[in-house]
Write a structure and sequence with these properties.
This protein is mainly alpha-helical. The protein contains 6 helices and 2 strands, in the order H-H-H-H-E-H-H-E.
């Protein structure tokens, strides 16, 4: 009986003794690990922190420098594109004004005072309206300031007048070839004939005659208007481009002889008896 109690007492006391020893073992382990932690912390010296901070600052400065260089390159590209667009604008104005002047010089000028100009001014093959036209998105650099926006507006109006003048000319040429000349031939009017306005109106009919006169006079007025607006925008926009880009290397041109394009719009001259000469 005593032996059994002693055994039970041993069983009861043994776990508690083990439990009591566990904190002692954990503390010993911590004591063993403590020197490693201290050694690890000793690695973070002032020099270590300084080197790490320098690395971070260097990375930040490198990123900022890369951004600045990228922005500088982008601005350089935008500047070059704007400069090219400015040169293209001046060359387009030269082409448009030159086209107007050539039409006036070669086909219109010598007949301006001829009352029979609706017949005397010959027809031509159609001009390509889109050939010398500049799309406005190519001139987006003008939107960056008030003066540029005003010039962009003026250029748009001038170019629309150029397009309208060429369209008017092409329509008149088509009418002259397909309707007017066949009507004149059918009426038996020979080239170089002397005929009165009343006789011509009777021979052609009011519709063809009236349309021929109006189409011709509208062409003359449209050419004059387009020339004035194009030369005005050319005179305004070149100084702006020179000042903006700091370069005088933009196309400059003048037309000393305007072949009647600078004349004010005038009503058609009366049509007394005259000699008809048609193409």
């Amino acid at each position: 009986m005593f032996i059994a109690c002693a055994s039970m007492l041993a069983l009861v006391t043994t776990p508690s003794a083990t439990a009591a020893s566990m904190p002692l073992q954990k503390t010993a382990s911590d004591l063993v690990a403590a020197p490693d932690l201290v050694s690890y912390l000793r690695l973070f010296t002032p020099d270590t922190f300084a080197n790490g901070f320098a690395t971070l600052v260097g990375a930040l400065l490198g990123a900022m420098l890369a951004y600045v260089l990228q922005r500088r390159f982008q601005r350089s590209q935008e500047y070059k594109l704007a400069l090219m667009a400015g040169h293209r604008l001046m060359f387009t104005l030269l082409q448009q004004i030159n086209t107007i002047v050539l039409i006036q010089r070669d086909f219109v000028y010598e007949h301006l005072q001829n009352p029979g100009r609706f017949l005397a001014i010959s027809a031509t093959p159609p001009f390509d309206v889109k050939k010398n036209v500049l799309d406005l998105p190519q001139l987006s650099f003008l939107l960056e300031d008030n003066k540029g926006r005003q010039l962009l507006h003026d250029f748009y109006i001038a170019q629309e007048n150029y397009i309208e003048a060429i369209n008017q000319w092409n329509l008149r040429s088509t009418f002259h070839l397909e309707r007017l000349q066949p009507a004149v031939a059918a009426a038996g009017i020979a080239n170089g004939s002397v005929i009165t306005d009343t006789a011509m109106r009777t021979a052609l009919g009011d519709q063809i005659y009236g349309h021929a006169v109006n189409a011709t006079d509208n062409c003359i007025v449209s050419l004059q208007r387009a020339f004035r607006k194009l030369t005005a925008i050319k005179a305004s926009i070149r100084p702006y481009l020179v000042q903006r880009f700091g370069s005088n290397d933009f196309t400059d041109f003048e037309f000393p002889e305007t072949w009647g394009l600078s004349l004010e719009e005038q009503a058609p001259a009366p049509c007394p008896p005259h000699e008809m000469d048609f193409g």
